Amino acid sequence: MILVNRLTIHCRVDVLLGALAVLALALSLDGCAALQPAPEPNVHLLLATPLTHIARAKRELVLEVTALRAWPGFDTLQMAYVQRPYELDYFATARWADAPAHMLGPLLAQALQQTESFRAVVQTPSAVPADIRVNAELIRLQQDFTTHPSQVELSLRVELIDVRAKRVLATRLFDATEPALTENASGGVAAANVAVQRVLEQVADFCVAESAR
Fold first, then answer.
1. What single DSSP character describes residue 118?
2. What is the three-class DSSP state of 178?
């Protein structure tokens, strides 16, 4: 009877040691995984193609494009998306090369220059005195997964200021939606660039028309 009990105790000890060895191996593997660096996210750009030039009367005006502001949630390198109303999320494996508002500023100045309707288009800070100031604000740039296919939503508010008269010439909100061809960040980037192109064309036409009043 004593021999049986000793045998039972030895078996239980062996089982316990085996379980501890498995646990130690699992913890070791987890530790190695934790030491592995997280993969770098893919970096994306906002770009625009040159606008189609339409012959317009050129005016001796200098336009000054100020630094774009962005609403909370969008002044970041992170790429925003929504899956539920009023809840903003960000892709873990993709980001912008710069905050979208920072990339949109030069694109807007380029689009206005390409109209060839102004003596000059400058960006702040600039030593050149401006006749008209262009203020723009990024309200929204997100990929909406509550629809199928998902779509990118872009909203930009633009304001024209007569610098010399110190008055507002015009304001307008520009909205664009563009369906994504793939249900991921890359599909959203492609759709965002289509939306940006369309909005820039509309903003350029708006600035040309309103500055002539």
1. E
2. strand
Q: What are the beta bridge partners of residue 133?
A: 64, 161
pLDDT tens column, 31-73: 554 456 667 889 999 999 888 766 677 889 999 999 999 999 9
Beta bridge partners of 40: none
Q: What is the pTM of this model?
A: 0.80
What is the residue whose two structure tokens read 């606008």?
A: 51
> With 50 as the cut, is the pLDDT of residue 2 above it?
no
199-203-205-208 Cα dihedral, nearest 10 degrees: -170
112 forms beta bridges with: none
Tell the burial category of 179 from Cβ atoms under 10 Å away from its Cβ (0-12, 13-18, 19+): middle
Residue with tokens 């779509």: 151
Helices 100-114 and 185-211: angle between axes, nearest 10 degrees:
40
Task: Name the nearest CA neighbour of 93 among 162, 43, 18.
Answer: 43
| Strands 42-44 and 78-84, sheet pairing | unpaired
Residue 211, H or E segment: helix 185-211
Residue owning tokens 């030491």:
35
